[in-house]
Design goal:
single chain; mainly alpha; about 0% strand; disordered N terminus
Length: about 1050
């Protein structure tokens, strides 16, 4: 019963899986205690609001608990239903087992008794066979050397064939051409690589030169710019000095000179303050420029370090790639060697395995032949009697199929449709009132008869030709009516004897006798006549022509049937026996006249017939073989066949053992070789990956080096720029300091003029002022001369710098292009190196294959010479085995008889097991014992009842699991509601405790000496401590534990079912 339960339980498990995917959806309650109820009364106290929250949460919890309890009731009811069905199922299972034991017991007892007797006979046969083996030992010894030598020759020839096949894979001309091409392309790639490498190095050198020249030009520009700016600042200072000196001289002119001097002093002080402010700003700018320069220099040093590191990384990446490439080449060689060794050995294993299969087949055939020969001899039956018994057994075992075969085409019609079979059987029914006339001539399914499958198959080309001819007239293709096929077959059989139409057809019929191609007469000859008719005759329908001109119609009637535009379907029959050798018939229909008729295209008819033949051919061929065996078998008894079969079996076993022994070593070796191939392949894959990674690393390192070089150049340029800013700031600072000094000097002079009574030395001071003015003008002129020289020098220096910038940009672009070309050339060179290595490897393989062919050929020649020697030795040995076979034959015959009876019992047991698995669906047609059939019918009913109960069990299980899931979801909602309630209670409890603390504190302050104290938790000493509000939390914990129990049960149940699956 195990198979039945396993299959049904599998279905139940699938049902449960589908059910477990259902996710019940429930309305979700609000879980935030702060929004359970909106506070619409602004004047409520906090305590009142918290109490309202608790009430709302408690109400919600009660509602959810109610739903949860209802769902639990549903789940418990479903569980009870499941338990009831399960109990009924187990009870029915016991009934099935009991009924099975009744049916199986007695048959199995007989079966085991037969096996026991057969085992005893087999031991006796083995004992006698050992005696016979001793007599044949000398013969076997004489033949052994020759047999082994022949086997070795087969192996060596197989090896030669193998290496020749391997050598044939190679084309020396192609290999040489490929190698030459690879060498040429590699040389070109190497040349291109060397050229690109040199160009890249030259471009890099040119870039270095251009960068140096640009730096020099930039430094010269900075120097010229500084000289110009210094000269300009000096001119400005000298102009200020002239202006001050002129003012000093002017101050001595006029009666109000002293007053003017005082005014000048005031203005000079204002100018001094302004100059001092400018000097302060200049100092700030200088400080900032100094700081910016320091940052730029630090960045330049960082860029320099990163560039140096990128160069180091590139060199390391290049070296790592070279090492990885070498490892890859080594790994490739190792893999190819391991792969070749494994393939060579696998070829040997495959050939030996094929040889072993062939030898085993030969042993099986030899054993069967010996059994057959022994049976014929030992049972004292002739070969013909044995063959007839086998034929009878085969007929009994395949009765339904053979009956179908014997029905010929009627069997096919029944295969297509039961209703069709009932219809077509009328055409072959000799008692049918309508069709008995033609049915009397039908020999259903017999060779040569139109109802044989072979003759129905023979008309398929004529069916196709009919439609081909109609197509030439632009007419519709006719479908095949299987009723018309049956009718045409019966008419063909009738016409073969009567040489005329039977008159029993539906809408039209063509007949022919003796034509190899009936269309020669039906179509070709009559069309030629029809083509001679004038147009007036051709315009008549076939019906009108037959009525008005019957003589004309009789000349072309077959042709007109074939090209009749109103026919829609037809059938054909072909009989191959009779006075004319063959007869063909065609029956036509305008429309379907029988509802149970099956109409299909010619192609579909051919496919259906082929399908039917494939179904019956195995039995049909074996049936014909056994019939032929009976016809060709001899009535005489001769033990020479037994002797011959025994020797053949011995030879086959010896050869099988030899092949098995030879197969052991290479099979074991193959496992080691496959492991080596796997290991080598892993190493090669790892090496390939490493090369790819290192190539990528090198490319990345090269890109990084170029990027860092560019960043270094940018940093250097930035430092130069910052230096220039600092230098300008220093110049500006010096200029502002000088202005301050000048303004201070002017203030000092005016103070001296006013405060030190220089009025007494007026003329001397005036003269001194005039001298200072003259000196200032002289200094100004000299400064202007220097400024003109600096201006003249700055223009060509700036022009040279701009030219250097342009050159550097072009050289940098050329360098990047050269580097890109170098990378491409490097990649191409690697590809061509790989191609060259591959071409050289192909040449090596070819040379190896050539040597292998030479060695194998020499081995075959040597083995052939050895066979010639052993053949002569075998011819000298002879042995005759003519005795001690009778007893063995008798024992074998008895054992075969027991085996045959045991096979019958075993088939009955198989039927009983089938009924136990499939119930009433099982096929019991092979059982003929009425009593046993009664047991099987009862067993089938009980199995069917068990399956029905198990389906109920599966449905109840799905229902229970679904409701359990719904209940679990309800419990989750309950837990959420409990949490909300607990949080509301906790909030209220917290509020009460806080207000209690405040009240106690106030009371303590008022009654410090009343003898009452309060602890940290607000409890009064000596009073009973109240429990905190934890009811909701405890309930929730209990619910969680309960739910964990349910979940655990669910897991255990799921595991139990999975194990049964």
């Amino acid at each position: 019963m195990k198979n039945v339960k396993d299959k049904i339980i599998m279905s139940a498990a699938v049902g449960f899986t589908a059910a477990s995917g259902i996710t019940p959806v429930f309305a979700q309650e609000t879980t935030n205690a702060e929004v359970i109820k909106e506070d619409v009364e602004a004047k409520k106290t906090k305590k009142e609001k918290l109490e309202d929250s608790v009430k709302t949460a408690k109400s919600n919890l009660d509602d959810v608990k109610k739903v949860s309890d209802e769902k639990k009731v549903d789940a418990d009811a479903a569980k009870k239903e499941l338990e009831d069905v399960s109990a009924a199922q187990d009870k029915q299972y016991a009934v099935v087992e009991n009924q099975y034991d009744k049916a199986y017991g007695s048959v199995n007892e007989d079966y085991q008794a037969l096996l026991s007797k057969a085992s005893v006979l087999e031991e006796e046969i083995a004992s006698k066979q050992a005696e016979l083996d001793q007599y044949t030992k000398n013969e076997e010894s004489a033949a052994k050397n020759l047999e082994e030598a022949k086997k070795d020759l087969v192996d060596k020839q197989a090896k030669l064939d193998e290496v020749n096949k391997e050598l044939a894979k190679y084309d020396k001309t192609t290999i040489d051409a490929d190698l030459k091409t690879a060498e040429t392309e590699q040389e070109k790639a190497q040349t291109a690589y060397d050229s690109a490498k040199k160009a890249n190095e030259d471009a890099a050198s040119a870039l270095t030169t251009a960068n140096g020249d640009l730096s020099a030009k930039k430094e010269a520009l900075n120097n010229a710019q500084k000289a110009y700016e210094d000269a300009a600042c000096d001119v400005n200072a000298k102009q200020e000095a002239v202006k001050a000196a002129q003012a000093n001289v002017d101050s001595f002119t006029g009666s109000d000179a002293l007053t003017n001097a005082q005014k000048e002093l005031d203005q000079a002080k204002i100018d001094l303050a302004s100059a001092q402010n400018a000097a302060t700003n200049a100092q700030t700018a200088l400080d900032n420029a100094t700081k910016d320069l320091s940052v730029a220099e630090t960045a330049q040093q960082t860029a320099q370090n990163e560039f140096d590191k990128s160069v180091e990384n590139f060199n390391e990446a290049e070296k790592a790639l070279e090492e990885a490439t070498k490892k890859e080449a080594d790994a490739k060689v190792a893999y190819e060697a391991a792969d070749k060794n494994a393939k060579d050995n696998q070829s040997i294993v495959d050939k030996l395995t094929q040889k072993q299969t062939e030898c085993q087949t030969a042993v099986n055939k030899a054993q069967t032949a010996l059994n057959d020969a022994q049976t014929a001899f030992d049972l004292n039956k002739s070969e013909k009697e044995v063959a007839q018994e086998k034929l009878n057994t085969f007929i009994n075992e395949n009765k339904s199929t053979i009956d179908q075969i014997n029905k010929g085409t009627q069997g096919f019609f029944e295969y297509v449709s039961t209703d069709l079979g009932k219809l077509t059987s009328q055409a072959f029914d000799k008692n049918n009132a309508t069709y008995s006339k033609i049915a009397a001539y039908v020999k259903l399914g017999q060779e040569g008869d139109a109802t044989s499958i072979e003759n129905m198959k023979a008309v398929i080309p004529w069916l196709k030709k009919t439609n081909d001819l109609r197509a030439k007239h632009n007419l519709n293709a006719l479908n095949v009516s299987l009723w018309e096929m049956a009718l045409a077959q019966a008419n063909s059989d009738w016409a073969q004897e009567n040489i005329k139409h039977s008159g029993i057809y539906d809408h039209g019929e063509n007949l022919s006798w003796g034509y190899q191609d009936p269309f020669d007469g039906w179509y070709d000859e009559e069309k030629a006549i029809y083509d001679t008719f004038d147009d007036s005759l051709k315009q008549l329908s076939a019906n009108d022509l037959s009525k008005k001109y019957p003589d004309k119609y009789n000349q072309v009637g077959h042709y007109l049937n074939i090209v009749h535009p109103n026919f829609t379907s037809f059938g054909m029959g072909h009989s191959s026996i009779g006075d004319y050798g063959r007869n063909d018939s065609q029956d036509f229909l305008f429309r379907q006249i029988h509802s149970s008729d099956v109409i299909m295209t010619v192609d579909d008819f051919e496919k259906k017939l082929t399908e039917y033949e494939n179904k019956i051919n195995t039995v049909k061929k074996e049936y014909k073989t056994k019939q032929d065996a009976v016809a060709n078998a001899s009535d005489a008894k001769d033990n020479s066949a037994v002797l011959k079969a025994q020797k053949a079996l011995k030879d086959a076993n010896a050869q099988l053992d030899s092949v098995k022994n030879k197969l052991e070593a290479p099979t074991a070796k193959q496992k080691e070789l496959n492991a080596k191939v796997d290991e080598a392949n892993k190493a090669l894959v790892a090496a390939n990956t490493e090369v790819a990674d290192k190539t990528k690393d090198k490319t990345n390192a090269k890109t990084e080096k170029i990027q860092k070089a560019s960043e270094l150049d940018t940093a250097k340029s930035n430092v130069a720029s910052k230096k220039k800013v600092k230098e300008l700031a220093e110049i500006n600072k010096a200029a502002t300091d000088k202005v301050v000094d000048d303004k201070q000097s002017q203030v000092d002079q005016l103070n001296n003029k006013i405060n030190n009574n220089k009025i007494n030395n007026w003329n001397a001071s005036k003269a001194e002022a005039e001298k200072q003015l003259a000196d200032a003008n002289s200094a100004l002129n000299e400064a202007k001369g220097k400024l003109d020289g600096a201006t003249d020098n700055l223009t060509p220096v700036k022009k040279a710098y701009n030219a250097a910038v342009a050159v550097q940009a072009k050289v940098e672009s050329d360098s990047m292009a050269a580097n890109s070309a170098f990378v491409s050339a490097d990649t191409l060179l690697q590809e061509k190196n790989d191609s060259l290595a591959k071409a050289r490897k192909a040449l090596t393989n070819y040379n190896g294959a050539t040597k292998a062919v030479k060695d194998a050929s020499e081995a075959v020649d040597a083995q052939s010479a050895l066979i010639d020697k052993y053949t002569k030795d075998a011819e000298d040995a002879s042995a005759t085995i003519k005795e001690t076979t009778k007893k063995i034959s008798e024992l074998v015959d008895s054992k075969d008889e027991l085996d045959s009876k045991a096979d019958v019992k075993k088939k009955v047991l198989d039927v009983i097991d089938d009924v136990k698995v499939n119930g009433s669906r099982a096929n019991t047609s092979s059982v003929t014992d009425e009593e046993l059939l009664g047991y099987l019918d009862e067993l089938a009913k009980e199995v069917d009842a068990f399956e029905e109960l198990h389906i109920k069990f599966a449905n109840a299980n799905v229902k229970y699991m679904t409701l359990l899931s719904v209940y679990e979801e309800a419990k989750k909602d309950e837990a959420q509601a409990q949490t909300v309630y607990d949080e509301a209670m906790k909030a209220l409890d917290t509020y009460i405790q806080e207000t209690s603390k405040h009240a106690v504190k106030t009371e303590n302050n008022t009654n410090k000496n009343n003898g009452v104290s309060t602890n940290k938790n607000g409890n009064t000493s000596g009073a009973k401590k109240t429990n905190s509000t934890n009811t909701g939390v405890e309930t929730g914990l209990g619910l969680d534990v309960a739910m964990m129990g349910v979940a655990t049960l669910g897991i255990v149940e799921a595991k139990r079912r999975s194990k049964k699956q």
